[in-house]
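tmp note - GMP synthase [glutamine-hydrolyzing]
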Amino acid sequence: TILIIDFGSQVTQLIARRVREEGVYSEIVPYQSAAEAVRRLNPVGIIFSGGPASVTDEGSPRAPQEAFDAGVPIFAICYGQQTAALQLGGEVEGGHAAEFGRAEVTVNKPSALYDGVWEVGGRYPVWMSHGDRVTRLPDGFEVVATSENAPCAVAVDEERRIYTTMFHPEVVHTPHGAALIRNFVRRISGARGDWGMKAYREEAIRRIREQVGNEKVICGLSGGVDSSVAAVLIHEAIGDQLTCVFVDHGLLRLGEAEKVVTLFRDAYNIPLVHVDAEELFLGALEGVTDPEVKRKTIGKLFIDVFEAEAKKIGGAAFLAQGTLYPDVIESVSFTGGPSVTIKSHHNVGGLPERMNMKLVEPLRELFKDEVRALGRELGLPEVFVGRHPFPGPGLAIRCPGEITREKLDILRLADEIYLEEIRRHGLYDEIWQAFAVILPVKTVGVMGDYRTYDYVVGLRAVTSVDGMTADFYPFDMAFLGRVATRIVNEVKGVNRVVYDVTSKPPGTIEWE
Ligand code: XMP
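out:
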């Protein structure tokens, strides 16, 4: 294991990614609990992340003494460099000309950190982002690379194996950064590089068995990648102690329910309760137009249905969820303060307390693309593994204004045609998420010799890394024209199609 001590940088997760890409397991812990993590994980190497604070500020974060005492190599980045220098007896001064963005380092002396990557005398581009600077190095350290505004671009103590950089090797703007991290992880720390999805699968199965024992586990299946992978993995571990519940709230895409039921019941032989709750959900949503009320209504009903189904199978001690790593990393926030609720995301968050269940979350250590890799390892079909995200409240939030069966049926058909065309043109995997929405207005058109007065369908497609920010996808106009023609011709009730060219921010991905 490589332990990453987080000082609150926006890009700490990228360090974990780079380490894992080397086939080495890595875990991020906030600096406050790093002492305990050093003991628990017994890492072969430790990385200090960057962070927004200044080490000259009173009460700014420090690395635990245990990290230095562990006797394993340390790679300290940016803020990590400054706190390491200070804690080992050096000096740091704030307020120097900040080198934000691209900079160039000149390599003056060799170091194990860039052995085989950078040569003495060479100049290389890196990404800097800090204004403080080390003015006196601790004993045993020497500067091996410099840049114009960063005399300590790289400072190392080869004997104690402590490597510090003022730049960020983890971002793609530092072109050789991944190679430096590889050197640190594989050569300097000696990590083996045998971590991968096969190893993860075996280890996860062992842990699930250990955690669950003979108890029953219940898992809400949405048809999305995360809950599907979690369910298949848990089933492999404990077989029929697992029951999956698939709630069909009548707000699913065309053919979705059949696909999920076929895959899990027939292909995987996993006990699956398919709850047809369309009447219940659509009844409760009748006349509701406010997006937050829609979300909350759906969230509450989902919990009711789930609870009722759990009772029917005699209760379960555990609830399985497909929670991912980015959701669980404790963030190190220096600003604090409550953030504004943009949307109430629907999940099964209220369930564990209400039903007194413990959680099984076998994907807690993984990033989204790692979950996809695990899904492939488990033999899940590619069409499932590569799916775009689909929100819990489903089509309800793609139907602004009142939700009616008529509108849902129109929306399902339009959405199906749109995605069919996207797949046919080989664009599906390039797009993070694509879907249709139906607007609560009718407009006038002409078809043949007749006047029409029908609904407008909006098309959305975005690229994104994590859903937090997004850009609209730049389809070519001929493609959009073809989709519009097909929708208007094939879907009764639609006579106009528009494309959403808003990015996030200021728009959100979903329309409600
Ligand atoms: P927004 O619309 O907030 O969406 O830009 C960001 C991502 O989150 C998905 N989303 C949801 N997922 N329950 C979910 O499970 C929800 O209530 C929910 N609302 C939005 C959305 O599809 C996009 O991928």
